[in-house]
Amino acid sequence: MDRRVISSLAHRDHPVAAPLSDASVDRLLDRALPRGDERLLDLGCGEAAWLLRALTPRPGARGEGVDTSRDALTRAREAARAAGLDARLTLHEQDAAGFTSPHVFGLVAVVGSTHAFGGLLPALATARTHLAAGGRVLVGEGFWEREPSPAALAGLGASHDEFDDLATTVERVAEDGWTPVYGHVSTQDEWDDYEWSWTGSLSRWALDHPGRPDSAEALRAATAHRDGWLRGYRGTLGFVTLLLRAS
């Protein structure tokens, strides 16, 4: 089963593809879009959950999303039409790192997708090229809550140098010419809800479709992910979402 299909199934019952609650998403968007009529861009938008959440209560806002997954963008368009938002949402099927636009944006979001750019600082460099004067960047990135054990690294399929601790992560951002104006560190409850939702949604799909040739593979993927989390990185991997202004 394609990894993008697994991810789509696993994220069906969670507000966004990151360990954030509904309340946290809304609070971050309220801070990020103070006027309510901004033009916003999501690089690596997936099914455009952030864009749909941003546009729904802000009739003056317009959004654009970029992603390489045709299936995810198809579902995003369907959700936008169902919500009556399709006239204010433009989606592009292409590599986000190479995306160009005639517009600049009051908010550029890169939440949980910095890996697509080669890391946090390259993602911020790309975001900067799209940013209007005085605009904001919303970036979500992992960090080490504590020194990762071999089991944690194995569960994530990650290397030790893939992330820094929280203080170092913020320092790197500041040294790169950004000023954090708000931030949210995902709580253990948010992480647990995200992981139970991820593994539960995928498992439920597999159990509901026993005749599908890929149902057994989906169930194995859910089980492996759950074991990697519970026996490995639970309490070790953190997630911070930063709202940034260019210094």
Automatic annotation (TrEMBL):
<feature type="domain" description="Methyltransferase">
    <location>
        <begin position="41"/>
        <end position="135"/>
    </location>
</feature>
<keyword id="KW-0489">Methyltransferase</keyword>
<dbReference type="InterPro" id="IPR029063">
    <property type="entry name" value="SAM-dependent_MTases_sf"/>
</dbReference>
<dbReference type="Pfam" id="PF13649">
    <property type="entry name" value="Methyltransf_25"/>
</dbReference>
<dbReference type="GO" id="GO:0032259">
    <property type="term" value="P:methylation"/>
</dbReference>
<dbReference type="InterPro" id="IPR041698">
    <property type="entry name" value="Methyltransf_25"/>
</dbReference>
<dbReference type="GO" id="GO:0008168">
    <property type="term" value="F:methyltransferase activity"/>
</dbReference>
<keyword id="KW-0808">Transferase</keyword>
<protein>
    <submittedName>
        <fullName>Class I SAM-dependent methyltransferase</fullName>
    </submittedName>
</protein>
